[in-house]
Amino acid sequence: MALTPDQKYFVRIFYDKLLIIASSREILDSAQRAFEDVKCKDNPNRCSGKQTFGLVDWPDDQAKRFTSAVSEALTQALQTRVDDASLRDIHEAMVNIQTEIVPKLIVPRLRPETFEEGLRRNLPLLIADLNPVSAGRSTLSFFGGALAAGVVIAATVVISIARP
After folding, report:
1. This prediction's pTM
2. 50-105 pLDDT per residue, tens
3. Is 56 exposed, middle or buried, given 0-12, 13-18 or 19+ CB atoms closer than 10 A?
4. Which domain covers residue 81, as residue numbers?
């Protein structure tokens, strides 16, 4: 699926946030605790992302850790760029992240035991590929009233990520 400039800009924000999360054990630990507290309490197996992202060969703890990082990066990206006019673009970008971008991040580049290192190595290259988009002015902007609608969309995507 070809992304619009606003969708590419959202993906760029996602990459930036994921890189920050992968670069800090403390931030990743916090993201994992929050994700497990909110999403995994009743059904821990639901949150591994093994089926959604093709992590079937990954140990459960590493699959949950990776899924937590993706979920947190999506949440932070959403909180950064939301407005009424772009909710559809953001939703489509989030679907693209879930169905195309994240699976491409994993295979064959990432190994469960070193996925943070793999993300730190690969994400700057992906960000550089999107730089022409981010250099231009995006129509996306933070708009407090639309944040609730965006959070609903994010929650829908995160829940679908976590479903086996």
Report:
1. 0.74
2. 777 778 888 888 888 898 999 999 989 988 866 544 778 888 988 999 888 888 88
3. exposed
4. 5-162
